[in-house]
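Thanks for the sequence, V.! I ran Helicase/UvrB N-terminal domain-containing protein right away. Repeating your input here for the record:
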Amino acid sequence: MDLRTPNKAALSRIVGEIHDDGFHEVVCDLATGVGKTYLAAAVVEYLAAQGIRNILVVTPGRTIQDKTIANFSPGSPKHVPGADHQPLLITAENFSRGQVGDALHDSGTLKLFVFTVQQLIRPAANTSRRVRELDEFIGGDLYSHLQSADDLVVIADEHHVYRSQAKAFSSAIRDLNPRALIGLTATPDPADESKVIYRYSLAEAIADGLVKIPVIVYRQDGHHDLATQLADACHLRTVKAAAYRTWADATGERAINPVLFVVCQTVQHARETADLLAGEAYIGDPAAVLEVTSQSSDTALQALASVEAPDSPIRAVVSVDKLKEGWDVKNIGVIVARRRLASEALTEQILGRGLRLPYGRRVGVPMIDTVDLVAHDSYRKLLEQKDALIERIVAPGESAATGEPTDVEAELRARQHAAGQVDLVQEQGTLRLVAPPRVIDGEQVDGAAALILKEYEVAEAEGRRDAVEYRTLHRVSGAPVIRFPRREREVLPVRFSLSLIDDADARAAGAAFAHEIRIPLIREALAARRTRRGDVEIRREAQDPGEARQAWISLDQVTTELETRVLGLGLVEESLAEFNAARRVVRAFVAGAGAEADSEIHWGAERAHHAVRGIDVLIRQKYNARRLQPQYAFRPVTLPVEPRPMPTDVRDRYADFERGRWYSGWRKSVLPVASFDAKTTERRLAEILDGSPNIAWWLRLQPNDPAFIELDTGGRYFPDFVAVDSVGIHWLIEGKADHDVQRRDVEAKREAAQEWARFVNDDGSFGTWRYLFCSEEALRNSHGGWDSLLVAAGAA
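Predicted structure:
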């Protein structure tokens, strides 16, 4: 049978534990999506080969029972191939038949009983259970027949459901007096910890590439309502569908449609969610939204079973708890949890619905190899739950199993060794060097000793060389050299200009809002990898952001909001003349934003919000006098300065912030490490730059870099960053705390940089350069997006 390595290891442990006489209860803890179905089939095959003829698979409910029956039914799409023994399937629907009755008394027939635990429990006074009733074909009741079978082995799927405290469930299984009870689960109950003989965690499965990579998706603009959350999830599903389709067309693989899976708190919540998803702004087709609860019809359950079929119309499945276990499909692309994922078990059970790989392997396309969990309401708590994935990893040397390593464990260790990991120490022999004597400095020296001395000399020289290389900081591979147009003062001719708020100025200010502003969906993967020691390390990794959905506002409403802001600043008297002037300025402002076009009838909410702030800035700036402008000459310098000393204490970019600390793990930084003086400005800027698809490279500037702007006072201004966007525009960037924005020296530096950018662009020799001044407020209003930051900072 085609078993994955963890399943082989689990099977070997099971064989080692149950091979001798006496009752054995063992549990295998395998992460969802790794293949417990294949392990169960392999256990049945092994037992059959050992002469066992009575095997009972107990499931917690009908969903898993139907799946299990399909797994052992040749011709079913869910059938597990590769077995040499074909059992007779016996269920609650067919056991009361003559053929089954004959087989029960035939010791040579391999019988596989598949029952839910509810079908096995002892009936109450006012209920009945068919398996405990007298049956003429059996000659007794089926439950008693199973009790009398001396070779009965029970496989308990989702073993945690039958924990010792659940007396009725537990008794129904243990009163059968089986020879062995084998539990399979992805979330074992703590009370069963001593029974766990093999463990393979979700973190290990992610690291070994056996399941999808979970990606937490959230937005930072404060919109946490359900409608926004579902709109973003539907958009992500559409993006994933395009990726699935493109990859399948290019490779000739079968077409697969990704599905949105929504988990609700109650049946009423599920019904409301399904109705919302059927609307035009979401899935847009009631027939494409499947609601599955305890009240669902057989037709809905049948549609659920075929949701993986290429011709299935289903694009969204809405459920309560009915599907958190046993629904094993591979095309869940996006998950929305309306209920809080308060426990480790619930997190893995719900997340597990989307972990299975659609093509059975990772294909190298992030949108296919990941499952997105849209979690606007509590994303930080969900990110913190990555620790729950680590808690269930058994540390090296603390295996849940005892005894000698199995052949499969040896295979795992061999794979680690091939990857450069050595965790087995063998007894060493003795090696002696033999060489003829040599003459060194006039003295005869043993040849072997001379070779050893030479080896030490070479090693010492290599160590010195490696130390120098390690301490030297260079650009990352592929990073560009930046030519910074430093402008130095030569003469000081004086020019003075002053303008009022005329239509041209208003149109120019409005031009910054000519395009819609994307709200980014932040996507952070919980990636796992194996370390050199063989254990698993989980870290957050930034993914390409998505685009959040937003409301649309009529142009009339936008205009009204702009006029209200202009008149509400308190800078003008309340008069008809000022009212008319406000209308004129607003008309020119929206005209500059392209609102005269006939097709311009609605604006996105984010665009409208920033436009209101933009006209506010325009009005305020026109009350400020323009200062004098000296004249300068350009003397370009090259960035970064190379080489420079490599810092020794470097931390991951997601580590806690410390001023002056160096951080690594950036995707777009010219240098592999960067340090910051402030968390809410400089480090926040770095995170936005590194995560934006519109930024190609960025460089954190240091006070000793040659990139500075001369001030009229004779001082020098050293900005924080240089960035290059996706169209080749260079950005000189400064981040400043809100309480420092109004300082006179800060305003002087800001004005100097704006003037510098104008002169650089007018010169035409250095490409396009722009200056971006970011207050903490602008950074907050950006919601983590570069486009939004440009607008919030007034630089769009």
